[in-house]
Amino acid sequence: MTPPDDPNRVLIFDTTLRDGEQSPGISLNASEKLEIAQQLARLGVDIIEAGFPIASPGDFEGVQGIARADYGPAHPIVAGLARTHVADVDAAYNAVKDAARPRIHTFISTSDIHIEHQLQSTREDVKGQARAAVAHAKRYLDDVEFSPMDATRADIDYTAEVIQIAIDEGATTINIPDTVGYAVPEEYAAFLAGLYERVPGLRDVVLSVHCHNDLGLAVANTLAGLRAGARQVECAVNGIGERAGNASIEEIIMLLHTRQADVGLHTGANTREIARTSRMVSRLTGYPVQPNKAIVGRNAFAHESGIHQDGVLKERRTYEIMDAETVGLDDVNSIVLGKHSGRHALAQALTELGFELKGQTLNTAFQRFKEIADKKKQVTAMDLEALVTDELRSEIAGYTLEWFDVEASSRRPPHATVCVTGPDGDQLTGSFTGDGPVDAIFHAINAATAVDAKLREFRVDAVTGGRDALGETSVQVEVAGVSGAGQGVSTDILEAAASAYVRALSAAVRRQGALAEAESASAEVPEVVRAP
Ligand code: KIV
Ligand code: ZN
Prior knowledge:
Layout lengths: L10 E4 L15 H14 L3 E5 L5 H12 L8 E6 L3 H11 L5 E8 L2 H7 L4 H18 L3 E6 L6 H13 L4 E6 L6 H14 L7 E6 L6 H10 L4 E4 L13 H10 L1 H4 L10 H12 L20 H9 L21 E2 L5 H10 L6 H17 L3 E2 H13 L6 E8 L7 E7 L5 E7 L3 H13 L4 E9 L8 E9 L2 E9 L2 H30 L10
Parallel strand pairs: 1-2, 1-8, 2-3, 3-4, 4-5, 5-6, 6-7, 7-8
Antiparallel strand pairs: 9-10, 11-12, 12-13, 14-15, 15-16
Helix pairs in contact: 1-2, 1-11, 2-3, 3-5, 5-6, 6-7, 7-8, 14-15, 16-17
Bound molecules: 3-methyl-2-oxobutanoic acid and zinc ion (ZN).
Zinc ion binds next to loops.
């Protein structure tokens, strides 16, 4: 991709499904990834980094599904990540090749600390690998991105040499990662300026920024990078990603939108899709959004002090620099269904919310909607979103909750029996007498599955207000050092907790399998692309 005709247009490269998915405990199935990709397209991102295809067959299929999807007129670029190994580049190409606009993103570290300790290689060898990987990717596609990983801790002259090589071989985007979130804004901007000086050809390709948030500076560094001339921003929804995460997409979009007059840059994003995108990613990943998170936190537009409330009632702008409507927070009040609403009304409401459910998934969603509508007078957009994302989760391969019995009393320890269907379709039952009803259910699930899962986090939230609100639970477990997250939604909190636990356990078991697969594949010594 060459720099956009409009010099002030910033390309949004979303890496929620790649760097974001690397957050501990997150494990999305193919339909969840596709739902998120479709929503990212509605949000108007320019590039979706869909995954790391060599990592596992599941990752490959996830990327391929996203590449093959129909996004209507949006046509975001779909990128697949690859190390400089031949097999990585081949896998990335095969996974993205059916996209309307495919991209291969290849990377190798240029910092001595990575070259010496992680790659156990030399600067010369890294140059050769970068040259050969970009050249190999270019045989497949025009659109090739190259990242010198850990660039901000690397020698600038050496990094510039590697970038020059990548550009000579035809890289069309050069991304400068602050991999460990170490840089401060002035330093990052100076580093980019230094690269422009050393590599004049950098002005003929797209310069990209990729900032991690270890010191809480990811968005500040991103803005500094844009001011230094970068025109692609790598970011993730709700700022998820390795460790403290990536720069948050919603903060960057709204920063450029709100301060456009001063910063002078703009994106192609539809800001009204921000809130929905954030809720969807939070639900499907099981990563809650902190209440005071900028733009999408529950309190981002709430005013507690009397003085502030008084001011906002008189004139919103007294204490608000953005309008909640601009980020789509008003949409949730626009849809209300009841027990007399039919399948057509449900499908239409779901379409408005951005879900295209068909066939059996729509039937099951309708059935669950009816059950909920019988218990609640009004089913709101928030309820529907929770219900549909819950349906998507149930497609995860692994264990499924069938039923549970729990006897709870303040006079004796609670006892639970559960039945789950195993990955091979067997019905498995287990019982346990625990400290409380939830504890008894969780241990009974361990007994039924014979998986020794340890509970790490358990959270219960109400989807909406009111006594008849749907309950949404989030669970994180660890199985032999591998974490898994799961969520459940129901009007019955115990049922929501049991489903969430079974899903978290399944996710951890699945990740264990994928890690074992990846380990045995790398034991076969990957062929590294060498300089010709
Ligand atoms: O943080 C990083 O360096 C990355 C690269 C793969 C771009 O995620
Ligand atoms: Zn990263």
